[in-house]
Design a protein that fits this description.
single chain, 275 residues, alpha/beta, 5-stranded parallel β-sheet, 13% strand, THDP-binding, magnesium ion binding, Transketolase_N, Transketolase, thiamine pyrophosphate
Length: 275
């Protein structure tokens, strides 16, 4: 039942992403589609929040370090009832609360402004430490990209979290193997990445980030006595074969006649019909 709930949420979120992307004709659609299962697992299964009170003190904090994934986060916030689905139509427009890069000052439910990249984990460590000092049972879940593992500040945060044994901190890394300057392995090789996190003192799991069952099991196995990280191998454009095969996928330009094809393929895949 948990897995079905998350899969259905991810499906609706992917539709939201396509609808928002069509309004701009381009954007970080591939990343949002690839990370939809990760975001759905967080919002439909893990996160403790109140949709009508995004600033509730007892809430779990979800930090989107990768601000350009905001289109995916907005889809999750709409699915969670924190923002209205109708508001998604304003994505990226003048005076919208949904800018193309996530901004905490604009959007309900957005905890940090994401970017420059590489700052999210250090903020998460500070939040998790502060919540523990306050006696709060709330958790901090930090979403990072594999490209952010190039940043020294990420590893400073990793060592700090382990030093303070922050069992209320969970990090998720979207390993889609692509960043703005090209394939991640060609920009700066980070493998063996699991060994590096383990050496910093984290509880480490590496899974298929597009496998909902694996995501839920990974959350269930997080260590309450030290920080946990879930390394998620994902496919850019997941659920839409037309976009999974795009060569230039970091910032996608999608032709006007392709959007409905994308939606049709998404629906066919969800219903188990070959696209």
């Amino acid at each position: 039942m948990r897995a079905d709930k998350v899969r259905d949420a991810a499906y609706r979120m992917r539709h939201h992403v396509l609808n928002m992307g069509e309004a701009q004709g381009q954007g970080y659609v591939g990343q949002a589609l690839g990370a939809a299962d990760m975001l759905a697992a967080v919002y439909a299964d893990q996160l403790n929040y109140r949709a009508d009170d995004p600033h509730w003190d007892g809430r779990d904090r979800f930090l989107l370090s990768t601000g350009h994934y905001a289109i995916g986060l907005y889809a999750a916030l709409a699915e969670a009832g924190i923002i209205g689905v109708d508001e998604l139509d304003t994505y990226g427009s003048d005076d919208s609360r949904l800018p193309m890069s996530g901004m905490a000052s604009y959007t309900p439910g957005v905890e940090i402004s994401g970017g420059s990249l590489g700052h999210g984990l250090t903020v998460a460590v500070g939040m998790a430490l502060g919540l523990r000092h306050q006696g709060s049972r709330a958790r901090v879940i930090n979403f990072l990209s594999d490209g952010e593992l190039d940043e020294g500040s990420t590893w400073e945060g990793a060592m700090g979290a382990a030093h303070h044994r922050l069992g209320n901190l969970v990090a998720m890394v979207d390993i889609n193997a692509l960043q703005a300057d090209g394939p991640t392995a060609g920009v700066l090789r980070t493998e063996p990445v699991a060994d590096k996190w383990a050496a910093c003192g984290w509880h480490v799991q590496r899974i298929d980030g597009n496998d909902v069952g694996a995501l839920l099991e990974a959350f269930d196995l997080c260590d309450p006595d030290r920080p946990s990280i879930i390394l998620c191998d994902t496919r850019i454009g997941c659920g839409v074969p037309l976009l999974e095969d795009r060569e230039k996928a970091h910032f996608m330009r999608i032709d006007a006649d392709e959007w409905q094809i994308c939606r049709d393929q998404l629906t066919q895949n969800h219903e188990g019909v070959p696209a």
